[in-house]
Amino acid sequence: MTGTRVLVLNSGSSSVKYQLLDMSDSSRLAQGLVERIGEQTSRLKHTPLATGESRERSGPIHDHDAALKAVAEELAQDGLGLDSPELAAIGHRVVHGGKHFTEPTVIDDAVLAEIERLIPVAPLHNPANLTGIRTARALRPDLPQVAVFDTAFHTTMPESAARYAIDVKTADEHRIRRYGFHGTSHAYVSRATAALLGRAPEEVNVIVLHLGNGASASAVRGGKCVDTSMGLTPLEGLVMGTRSGDADPAVIFHLARVGGMSIDEIDTLLNKKSGLIGLCGDNDMREIRRRVDEGDEQAKLAFDIYIHRLKKYIGAYYAVLGRVDAVVFTAGVGENAAPVRAAAVADLETLGLAVDDELNAVRGDEPRLISPAGARVKVAVVPTDEELEIATQTYALVESNGYAAPPQGN
Ligand code: AMP
User: Fold this and answer.
1) What are the pLDDT digits (tens) for 117-138?
2) What is the reported pLDDT for 352?
3) How far is the CA of 336 from the centre of ligand 1 (A)?
4) What order of strands is seen across the sheet that includes strand 224-228?
5) What is its EC number (predicted)?
6) From the candidate CATH numbers 3.40.640.10, 3.30.420.40, 3.30.360.10, 3.40.630.30, the one assigned to the domain spanning 5-149
7) Would the CB of 336 count as within 6 Å of ligand 1?
8) Domain range list for the chain
9) Spans in the chain with pLDDT lower than 70
């Protein structure tokens, strides 16, 4: 293998996000997004990082194949074509890897079949991820393609955390257990937090709070996940932009029996119309804070519910870990919303947790501590970088294997 470039693809049902990185120095060469694939109003936005000047295309892009070809053309225009010998591999974000994909995995036909077998537990995500993989394989059949699973980092959870307390036979038959998501982010951020503390990941216990539009918490002991807040699907856990997070499962029976709602309607309610948007009509924390500052009671209640849930998870994971070295905030809300960070650890001095208001108010792209000097438990902000993590894992795998692409069947 000679090349050092890795293309990272994150394929959704009607979108493809991509980044091209050079792993000789982890730098970004280009990034972009194709949206509304299959519609008349598709859009491709491409940014070569050398100039930083974005280009846009609009007009119908019929399918993922056409989308990837358009991306390849844009990259070629910048001298970064996918036919370049510099390209070492393509890394795919795959949302659900079930119980068995514990590591990034070079994709062959058997791996594809297993990702397909997991569709019942990830009906929204895995089909789109598969389409992206198939398209990329057709485009560069000679190139190693690696699946990096959102669930992989959480496969170290003990059974006591991963199992729901429901009938074992039924659970196993339907593969019902807690898988967790956002794993590449929790992996990257927990490692970067250890680096920020100047210690090895094996030495530190960290609570990671990934607070974006989707949100999840994890308890990481010595670099390994021991609990996380998302479960069978990304619906469980924290209050999110549009998802309810934890709710008594009997809410569903009640809405069906008494509310007369169908299962699909309840699914939409809990995944798309709940969380912050269901509580106050906004899911953007900036807007919610603006409303809170203006004295809006509904926004204040939404914010308080969000913080209450977050605090409960910090407390729970503190107990799970026993000793906590750092609590770290990441993703859109975690990296930017100082009031969320301050409120989440307010009044927890007896647990050794506090933020320094001045440090908390500082904005920036670098990992940083926001706890007072000498604090027993550090509080940190560490910007996440899922694409870099996918590229790093992909490159490490193909480099160590001195790799050749596996044969393709169909
Ligand atoms: P993500 O899913 O990680 O991209 O996070 C997106 C969310 O981050 C948005 O919905 C906002 O709620 C939040 N966000 C982004 N920028 C800010 C900011 N400056 N202040 C507060 N929240 C922000």
Assistant:
1) 999 888 878 888 999 999 999 9
2) 96
3) 7
4) 224-228, 215-221, 205-211, 326-330, 378-381, 368-369
5) 2.7.2.1
6) 3.30.420.40
7) yes
8) 5-149, 200-386
9) 1, 403-410
